[in-house]
Specification:
This protein folds into 2 domains: about 160 residues, no CATH class; about 50 residues, no CATH class. The chain is about 75% helix and about 0% strand. The protein has 11 helices and no strands. The two termini are about 35 Å apart.
Length: about 240
């Protein structure tokens, strides 16, 4: 008996939602922080929502608030965005196989690939009978919805209630730390985490706090490429 497209989507949505609940709690709070922060700079109520729908760049949205308030030129903002989000270049490369054959979903899956979505899709496979493409689509969509809703509510609150926003932009850093610790506990073996820590620390010493991100990502990519086969043999064996 054929399953209707509607039932396929519902089943995938039902399977995807539980995996996004931790992101829901984090993204709603972070979205609140972003909405409040951008409202405190004098931007209208609709700006947090619009930016979160069109840009959806997490940490870069927090950085962009200060850059826009400081009147920086668009070229400077573009270059900073490239540096801050350069890690997504490497995320994308690792997702090529998973996104193969996704059809019309592919452009949105690429656009919506944030750190948290990447973490879920890399470590989770849907249950048997659940369409993988729809599962990945709903994980991506739900996570962005959480961010947009949080930003919208935060923008409204920021316009109505005055806030001291000092330190509020640290919320995203805190979430990244939690994600890292979760992966550290759940992943079998920790070579990639240790390689990432070592490369980041080394490049931080060499290039300084303002220029180490891209060199660190390149260092991680090169090291993981060289060590790929030995690591796969060691940690993927039955």
């Amino acid at each position: 008996m054929a399953v209707s497209p509607g039932n396929i989507r519902k089943k995938a949505l039902k399977a995807a939602f539980p995996y996004t609940i931790p992101v829901l709690t984090g993204f709603f709070v972070l979205g609140l922080a972003f909405g409040i922060l951008i409202s405190s700079k004098g931007y209208g109520f609709f700006w947090p929502t619009l930016v979160s729908i069109v840009v959806y760049a997490g940490s870069m949205q927090f950085v962009a608030v200060g850059m826009m308030a400081g009147g920086l030129e668009p070229l400077s903002i573009i270059l900073m965005t490239l540096m801050v989000n350069a890690r997504h270049l490497f995320y994308g490369l690792s997702m090529l196989e998973k996104y193969r054959g996704t059809g019309w979903m592919k452009p949105y899956l690429i656009f919506g690939l944030c750190d948290e979505t990447y973490s879920i899709l890399c470590t989770t496979e849907p249950a048997e009978g659940v369409d993988k493409n729809w599962f990945r689509f709903f994980v991506t969509l739900l996570n962005q919805i959480y961010w947009v809703v949080g930003s919208t509510v935060g923008g409204f609150i920021g316009m109505v209630i005055p806030f001291n926003t000092t330190g509020i932009d640290f919320a995203l850093t805190a979430l990244f730390i939690v994600i890292f610790l979760t992966q550290w506990q759940n992943v079998k073996g920790r070579p990639s985490a240790l390689i990432g820590i070592f490369c980041a620390f080394l490049c931080r010493l060499i290039f300084g706090p303002d220029g180490f991100l891209i060199p660190a990502m390149l260092c991680i990519l090169l090291t993981m490429t060289v060590l790929r086969q030995p690591l796969e043999k060691r940690y993927n064996r039955p």
